Amino acid sequence: MTPEIRMMSDKDDSRDGDSEVVTKTRSRTQKPPLYKVLLLNDDYTPMEFVVHVLERFFGMSHAQAFEIMLTVHKKGVAVVGVFSFEVAETKVAQVMDFARRHQHPLQCTMEKE
Ligand code: TYC
Asked: How far is the CA of 71 from the centre of ligand 1 (A)?
């Protein structure tokens, strides 16, 4: 290949000393995805146990916990909180482990919001 020889007189001012090219890359701030934690109804887990779970792992008052438990009981499912992936995963694991240790079939899952 023939090397290109460019002279100052070529009038290309881009690389000959006192000018520069500034490029801006547009970036959009990404918000982290959120995950809903869902509690599912079943016929066997005692109501008081579910209320206790909601107080213990989701920081609800007794009244709030009772209300959400009744929603799950009547409708089959309810969102009990919205968290980052890691926190949602931890909540689900805590609830599932606590239910298993008490031999209740309570199910807790997560889904992307
Ligand atoms: N349906 C259960 C009962 O009648 C109570 C219950 C509520 C179970 C919510 C699970 O996520 C649940 N004992």
From this structure: 9
